[in-house]
Amino acid sequence: MITKLVRILFYIYCCLITDRLIAQQSKVSKVITVRDGLPQSFVSGIVQDKNGFLWIATLNGFGRYDGRGFKHYWHNSTDSAGLSSNIILELLDLGNSQLLLCYMDGDLDLFNTETEKLTHLGNRVSFGRLKNESGFFKSLVTNKKGLCWMIAGDGGVNQINIHQNTFEHFSPGQLKLHEPVWALAFQNDRILLFTQTLLSVRGKINGSTQTFHYPFKIVNVSNPGSENFCLPWTRKNGDLIITDLSGIIVWNPVSNIFKQLPLARKESPGKLVAPSDSIGNYFFEYKGGIWLLRQDDSIVAWSPFTSSIKGIPTSMCIDHSGILWVGTNGYGLRQYNLAKSGMQGYSNQHSFVMDVLSHYGIGAKSVAATFLSHSAPFANRMATWRDKVWIADIYHKTLWPQLVLFTGQTLTVKTFHPEDSVSKNETHSIKFISYDKKGVAIQYG
Questions:
Q1: What DSSP assignment string belongs to 31-80?
Q2: pTM over 0.90
Q3: Backbone CA torsion sign across 132, 137, 140, 145
Q4: Disulfide check for 432: which of 186, 252, 254, 443 has CB 3.0–4.6 Å away?
Q5: What is the rounded distance in angstroms from the CA atom of residue 55 to the CA atom of residue 307?
Q6: DSSP 16
């Protein structure tokens, strides 16, 4: 029998990870410390560039990580081309291979990841205001076209023009606001200013404004600073994700529909410290651990705080390969592989596949409706993509290739009809199954 290699292409759209799968505590894949070359153990910012390098800011220097080792950048009083300081409080991705380094003393540096050229900003008199407002660097947002905004100490907004190397301050009065700004965001080419009672949306910081009054109450937001402000995130559908001391609020200003998700904090409201992953989940720090807000607005204790994992998350970045990097407050840089299910071990009762299905609530009746009920313990082959698992049996012979799809707590038998049709007089079994960007590839014969 001639073995035929058939590529069956079908596109798997982004879906939610099943409840039980994602509820498993995710384990740290690796911890990178000073012994591995990390400039310092307190990580204040992480950005990945287009070439795959990780740029890591710490409280004692700056580093580039290539997966094997670090290249270091330091402040040297005798080198005018070096960093302005070593204590970096914030690292902002400006786009176009540009990073903004924000220092504890209020200085700013512009760093080009391609040329590794450093440009000192803030050497003008107008930047002097930042000397006393470095605690607000964590509130920085950018349009990635050369403009940045951050909260000012008087409740106004500071605007930084990177291209022109200029700084402007706008007080609440100049912004035509009657209360301080406590959070900022940028969405659809517009700057969003959050106060205690309303959202002000404007194309230019001092331009015309569109006002939306909250249909909810913000709890305990006062004197925003490095330890007490939240940085709202935005979704593609227009939803805003806001944190306060009572929990998380998901609000769409246009429809005025909102959800309040209780997640009480005793201290500062914190902020969502990572962008969404490829399917729209948001990671954030809560009670020293990492929690997850999913697309359906449910909250999962993804990697809650335990005494065995030292450090509190201070910065996060999801790289191009699906790795979540988590910087901590003095305990190095953690690595989580989001492509792995994070399934915990359990006793072997049947075959591996049957044990997994049983573990996730698939009963014998559901299995009996598929060819898996007749599978030998070693005969299954699997390919996984996000929340879908495709399962084959190398001894299951059929006229057309068949796979079992496990997703959404259900099992379904899928039959495929390859372009080079199988002879009606022959039966075949799947020998190999894998997954790539184009779809599922099977070899049968």
A1: EE-GGGT-S-SBEEEEEE-TTS-EEEEETTEEEEE-SS-EEEE---TT-T
A2: no
A3: positive
A4: 443
A5: 28
A6: P
135 phi, psi to nearest 5 deg: -65, -15
What's the angle, vertex CA 140, arms to CA 137 and CA 146, rounded to 5?
120
Q: Give the list of residues 6+ apart from residue 48 with CB closer than 8 angstroms, or none.
A: 54, 55, 317, 319, 320
Note the pLDDT tens digit of each residue in 90-114.
999 999 999 999 999 999 999 999 9
Angstrom CA distances, 230 to 242, 261, 285, 322, stand at 7, 16, 11, 25
For Cα atoms 360, 362, 363, give the angle at the middle one, nearest 5 degrees.
135
6, β-bridge pairs: 442
Give the residue range(s) of CATH 2.130.10.10 domains in the chain.
22-337
In degrees and rounded to multiples of 5, residue 54 shows phi and psi of -95, 130
More reliable by pLDDT, 214 or 338: 214
pLDDT digits (tens, 9 = 90+) for 45-84: 999 999 899 999 999 999 999 988 999 999 998 998 899 9
The pLDDT of residue 12? 31
| Spatial separation of the C-alpha atoms in residues 428 and 422, rounded to whole Å | 9
- Residue whose entry in the numeric block shows the structure tokens 């959800």: 259
pLDDT, position 141? 94
Amino acid at 59: L
Separation CA 288–CA 326 (nearest Å): 12
Report the relative pairing of strands 209-213 and 190-194 from DSSP bridges: unpaired
Which CATH superfamily does the domain covering 22-337 fall into?
YVTN repeat-like/Quinoprotein amine dehydrogenase (2.130.10.10)
Question: Measured on CA atoms in the order 396, 401, 402, 405, is the torsion positive or negative?
Answer: positive
| pLDDT in the model for residue 221 | 57
The token pair at 179 is 């209360």
Write out pLDDT tens, residues 355-405. Answer: 778 877 888 888 889 988 888 767 788 888 777 888 888 888 888 888 888
Q: Provide φ and ψ at 20, rounded to 5°.
A: -70, -35
Cα end-to-end distance, the chain, whole Å: 7
- pLDDT score recorded for residue 14: 30
